[in-house]
Amino acid sequence: MSALLEVEDLTVTFSTKNGPLDVVDGLSFTLEQGASLGIVGESGSGKSMTSLAVMGLLPPTASLRGRVALDGTDLTALPESKVRRLRGDRMAMIFQDPLSSLNPYYTVGMQIEEAYRAHRTGVTRRQARKVAIEAMERVHIADAARRVDHYPHQFSGGMRQRVMIAMALSTEPDLLIADEPTTALDVTVQAQILDLLQEVRRETGTALILISHDLAVVSEIAEDVVVMRHGVSVEQAPAERLFSDPRHPYTRALLDAVPRIDDEIGELRLVDRSIDAVGGKP
Amino acid sequence: MVRFLATRLAGMVGVLFLVVLFTYAIFFALSPDPAVQICGKNCTPELIDQIRTNLGLDRPFYEQFLGFLSGLFVGSTYGTGANAIDCAAPCLGYSFQTGQPVLEMFEQRFGVSATLAVGAAVLWLLMGVTGGLVAAIKRGTWFDRAATGAALGGVSIPNYVLALVLQYVLVVKLGWLPFPQAVPFGDDPGQWFLNFVMPWLVLAFTYASMYQRLTRANVVDTLDENFVRTARAKGLAPGLVWRRHALRPALTPVVTLFGMDFAGLLGGAIIIETVFGLNGVGKMAADSITKNDQPVIMGVTLVAAFLVIVGNVIVDIVYTTIDPRVRIGARA
What we know:
The structure holds two protein chains of two kinds. Chain A is an alpha/beta fold. Helices cover 36% and strands 24% of the residues of chain A. In chain A, strands 6-7-8-3-9-10 form a six-stranded mixed β-sheet, with helices on both faces. A four-stranded antiparallel β-sheet of chain A has the order 2-1-4-5. In chain A, a hairpin with a 2-residue loop joins β4 (62-70) and β5 (73-74). In chain A, α5 (125-138) packs across α7. The radius of gyration of chain A is 19 Å and the shape is globular. Chain B is 76% helix and 2% strand. Chain B has 14 helices and two strands; from the N terminus they run ααααββαααααααααα. In chain B, α8 (189-223) packs across α10 and α9 (226-233) runs antiparallel to α10. Classes of the chains: A alpha/beta, B mainly alpha. Chains A and B meet through α2 and α4 of A and α9, α10 and α14 of B.
């Protein structure tokens, strides 16, 4: 049996004034059913572009090479209409900023129902509404039956991200991609959302790709980790090994850059730019 | 909702009061003595005094202003004794030039301005919004460039220039349209319609250009919104992403603009009506300004301001049904 997701030699190229620019360059990884993978890197390392490439949501100015296979089917070879049917159904995605990711003009219930109805034919509004309420309950939104008719701006940041997760889960996807799901949230809420993602994985068996610049976030959830830099994977390893025994200097530098509670005040370690000579593209 | 409306209406009354006050003050301070004007050639000082007394011009500013205000609500009486004329509320006074009640002048001319505004609005919404949408969908294609170019032209060319050129070409050179002349609808609907074709087109073209640019820019911006990406990530059909998630946010600002533009036009399109000889409120305004017919200028200003403010309140109310954030915000 093949893995849930196989990414092979993925390259995403933007054409710029100064010629083509590879924002993701030859990336490969696999993800088994129900497994979790963390993709870590600085801004501009290509981690978000990787997730958009998997979802088939790259901007029209980008071109893609390589293979992205879901259950053995190469998505890059499918026509957009077929990929669209998988998107939101077999694979779902949540984004960094939950406020701007929800449409302010519609109730959260309607937006969850819409995700569900897009992939289930012959579903009545009443049935979809029930699914929406259940999905909201599953992500622990209290009083879901009433809150379902509220608008995004009536929710707090953390609650909005819960709504996004509820929306993604409404179709019971096999793969959930979370692109910086906690970056826009404050620290206490971050922990709650991470706990929720863990719980969702346990209960639904969905596989998870967690994208973050924050090693601490990734270390809590991911079983395997890909460290990206300038579009290239510099190190891939099981999380435990990666954190205990980072082999690439960039990974070590990233780990060292995480502020610790016993740091001197005002002291922040930066990633040494001389690592450019060792791996990745400058 | 009730509270929202009450606030808006209170604001509306306040703004109208200020408009009346400023307009009145400007004309009180700046205009030459209307009594002299009315008196005409065979004038005597006694006659001027008489007119001043009749019109209340001998009284101090605040008394005149209060008189004008109360005239709006309870009507007023000009002159005394046998010469007294009653002006029923809402009294906007009498034209210095013709002696006709200003309100009556309005009633006679409003239909023309309204016809002009409605016809042009239909055209410009069709051309502007559709053009903007198609240009946004077909971003970067020849249609986009052509539409954007035409819109730039429409915004840049003053509409009186366009009006005169169009009149010259269509009427004088090609003879496709008859020379415009005032015909009531009942007499000859065909001629009536043809009279309005050019004014509609010229007015619509200018507005359509603005609406095209606004619509295109809004749609392009909205398509970059994160929630549109979310809609796509859900696997919604492209048509649904468009209709449900892109169009509504993109067209909301168009509603605002339209409310104000349309209301403004009901108060008269001064240039277009003058160029095409349409006897509407705009032409009345232009004539009254050249003849320094103070009560008519006051009347036009007041009614135009009233229409714009009412238009704004209607836009606000419509907004509460379009944008849930406004709706809830007002209640909180």
